[in-house]
Design brief:
The protein is mostly helical and about 70 residues long. About 30% of the residues lie in helices and about 0% in strands. The chain is built from two helices and no strands. Helix 1 crosses helix 2 (about 55-60). It is globular and about 35 Å long. It starts with about 30 loop residues before the first helix and ends in a 12-residue tail after the last helix. The model is unreliable at about 65-70 (pLDDT under 50).
């Protein structure tokens, strides 16, 4: 991906550099998606696609709930 796109891999709350960040003891996928959307806004990024599991599904939708389309 990095050959064609700008790739950013932020640490999520409770992981990496944010291991000690205060917050809920247990975070849901929606909590992580909210964090990712806030980080995108904080960085002033546009046209972003979040890749990687359930968090990406939730973060890529305005409601944060995600949807899977079947054909």
């Amino acid at each position: 991906l990095a050959d064609e796109f700008r790739v950013i891999a932020p640490d999520l709350p409770g992981h990496g550099a944010l291991i000690e960040q205060p917050g809920p003891k247990v975070m849901s996928v929606a909590d992580y998606a909210t964090f990712v959307r806030a980080e995108i806004e904080r960085r002033g990024l546009n046209g972003v696609r979040v890749v990687g599991g359930a968090v990406s599904l939730a973060a890529n939708t305005p409601s944060g709930r995600g949807r899977i389309a079947r054909s």
